[in-house]
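Inverse folding, one chain.
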């Protein structure tokens, strides 16, 4: 059995790293002591400095325990990032995202190196998953230089898959009688969080047979109304019933809506292709306002942009579908936020903070 590794750093950033970054001028603007911000080398504020992500040094066999934060400290670090950093309105949210994204990578790294126990790992990964989902919706319209949705999605899928593996591992370890499991779940308060994460997994993989199968095979205690709704949406999209899928997405609570909307660009692209065949005509047009409602467009100009992107004629706010003109080489529709920035900022406590 491998040796247990347990970190001894009880602050958000190890002192050694804090001193080094202060000395080398590597402090982030969010970490400096405000009273020293005009100096050539601002000082670090120990209450705001957070360990940054760094790849392990080549040839390093044993980590320095003084640089590893135990589970409770990692939990406090996540809460600090969510409550004190992401809620700020005086700094561009892209800056807040980049800072939090990097610091959460360091949190994940500390979890893996120490092989933190399953329950604690679950409590740490759940808010991280919520962060990636929220960020995808809030920054989806930003330039690729400011926000890369592919990288964000890569980390989101890594975390949600790891989280589901942790749930499965915990379930295997605790094969007890049904009543004992229910009692323990009540004490641990995992049921609601797990059903939410299982729902998110289904919504992130709409129409995916593996995700649908997992949802159908969940123990009844986790097969909540949320999970059942997500399965209905996923099955509707599997059958390419875009109208039903989009209509049901509208009924979801904010976090789950954001999760489902990670698929929106693909949904719109595929739906427009289907309609180009089903409503193929050189004379008739489809009402643009109806299409805007069907495919969850907030701005008719975004619908017009997508029609032009895919080679469809958009005139007088109506769409002319012609199968032969549809550009099949275009893989995704243009990005559009379902919630505007102000709405998302108001929703931040509900999506990120209330669950922590």
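Residues assigned per position:
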């Amino acid at each position: 059995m491998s040796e247990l590794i347990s970190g001894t750093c009880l602050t958000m950033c190890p002192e050694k790293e804090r001193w080094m970054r202060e000395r080398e001028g590597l402090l982030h603007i969010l970490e400096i002591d405000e009273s020293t911000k005009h100096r050539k080398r601002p000082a670090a504020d120990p209450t705001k400095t957070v360990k940054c992500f760094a790849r392990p040094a080549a040839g390093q066999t044993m980590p320095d325990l003084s640089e590893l934060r135990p589970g409770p400290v990692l939990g406090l670090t996540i809460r600090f990032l969510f409550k004190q950093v992401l809620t700020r309105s005086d700094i561009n949210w892209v800056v807040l995202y980049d800072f939090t994204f990097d610091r959460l990578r360091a949190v994940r790294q500390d979890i893996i190196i120490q092989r933190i126990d399953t329950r604690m790992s679950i409590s740490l990964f759940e808010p991280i998953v919520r962060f990636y989902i929220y960020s995808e919706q809030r920054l989806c319209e930003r330039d690729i230089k400011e926000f890369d949705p592919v990288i964000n999605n890569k980390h989101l899928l890594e975390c949600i898959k790891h989280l589901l593996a942790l749930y499965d591992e915990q379930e295997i370890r605790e094969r007890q009688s049904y009543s004992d499991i229910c009692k323990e779940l009540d004490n641990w308060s995992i049921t609601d969080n797990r059903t939410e994460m299982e729902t998110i997994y289904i919504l992130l993989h709409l129409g995916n047979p593996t995700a649908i199968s997992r949802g159908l095979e969940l123990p009844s205690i986790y097969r909540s109304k949320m999970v059942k709704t997500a399965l209905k949406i996923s099955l509707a999209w599997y059958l390419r019933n875009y109208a039903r899928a989009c209509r049901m997405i509208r009924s979801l609570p904010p976090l789950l809506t954001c999760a489902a909307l990670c698929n929106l660009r693909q949904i719109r692209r595929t739906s427009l292709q289907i309609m180009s065949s089903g409503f193929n005509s050189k004379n008739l047009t489809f009402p643009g306002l109806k299409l805007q409602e069907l495919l969850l467009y907030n701005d008719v100009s975004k619908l017009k942009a997508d029609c032009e992107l895919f080679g469809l004629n958009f005139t007088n706010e109506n769409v002319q579908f012609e199968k032969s003109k549809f550009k099949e080489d275009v893989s995704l529709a243009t990005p559009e936020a379902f919630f505007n920035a102000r709405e998302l900022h108001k929703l931040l406590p509900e999506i990120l903070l209330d669950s922590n």
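The first strand starts at residue 286 and ends at 287. The radius of gyration is 23 Å.
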